[in-house]
Amino acid sequence: MSTKYKDLKQECYEANMALNALGLVIYTFGNVSAVDRGNSVFAIKPSGVPYDILKPEDIVVLDFDNMVVEGKLRPSSDTKTHAYLYKNWGDIGGIAHTHATYSVAWAQAQQDIPIFGTTHADHLTSDIPCASPMHDDLIQGDYEHNTGIQILDCFNDKGLSYKDVEMVLIGNHGPFSWGENAAKAVYNSKVLETVAQMATLTLQINPNAPRLKASLIKKHYERKHGKNAYYGQ
C-alpha cells in the first residue's frame, strides 16, 4: 500500500480490528475513524465490509466536508457524524461507534448511566450522558450530520466538556466514544460497555442502589488522572 495516508489507514484498520476483537461489534456493525489534523483528513471503515476480510487498503480517507480523498469503497454510513465531531472538537484524534449490547440498552431506555462505583469513577466524574432522541425534522433531514449536532447539543445542554467526558449515548440508537487517537476511542468504547453492564446488574440486584459518594468519586478519579496520580491498573 503506497500512499501518503498509509500510516493513517493502518491506525484506522487496527482500531477497527480491535473493536471486533473486544466483542463490541458483530457482522459489519460499528466503525472507528482516525484523524490526520495536519492534512485535514480522517480515515474510516468502509460500509458493509465484514471484519474478517477487512484490509488496510480498504480504509477510506475523507476531508472534513465528507469528500473522498482516497479509497474505492463507500465509507461508513456514520461518516458525516465523525466529520462533524472532528470539525467542531479540535482535540480529538479518533472516534468509535458500536452497537454493543449494554450500551445500546441504556440508549434505548433513554437514560444517563449513573455513577454507581469506582470503576466508573476511574474514568470520569459524571454520569455517562444520553442525548435525547432526535426531533422528527432532523430525522427527515441530513440524519448522520444531524447526529453530530445531537451530540454537541447534549454536551452543551448538560454543561459537559468533550475533553472530560469522552463518551455519549444517542437516545434510541447507541454509543459514540472518542479520544486522543483511534486506539483510545476503542478503549473508551470498551469502558463504556463494561460500565453499562455493571450498572445494569447493579440495578437488578438493588433497584434503589445509591450513587457513588462524592469523596470516592474524587479519590478514584484523581489517583488515576490527577497531578499526583499513582494508579496504573
Please tag this protein with its features.
8 strands, L-fuculose-1-phosphate Aldolase, globular, 8-stranded mixed β-sheet, 8 helices, single chain, alpha+beta, 233 residues, 40% helix
Individual helix count: 8
Largest sheet: 8 strands, mixed
CATH homologous superfamily grouping:
Class II aldolase/adducin N-terminal domain
Helix content: 40-55%
Q: What CATH architecture would you give?
A: 3-Layer(aba) Sandwich
* Net shape: globular
Structural class: alpha+beta
What is the strand tally?
8
Q: Output mean pLDDT.
A: 95
CATH class: Alpha Beta
First and last CA, distance: 37 Å
* Estimated radius of gyration: 18 Å
Tally of domains: 1
What's the CATH topology name? L-fuculose-1-phosphate Aldolase
Strand content: 5-15%
Q: Taking strands numbered 1, 2, ... along the chain, how are they ordered across the largest sheet?
A: 4-3-2-1-5-8-7-6
Q: What order do the helices and strands follow?
A: HEEEEHEHHEHHEEHH
Give the low-confidence spans: none
In short:
By secondary structure, the chain is of the alpha+beta class. The protein contains 8 helices and 8 strands, in the order αββββαβααβααββαα.
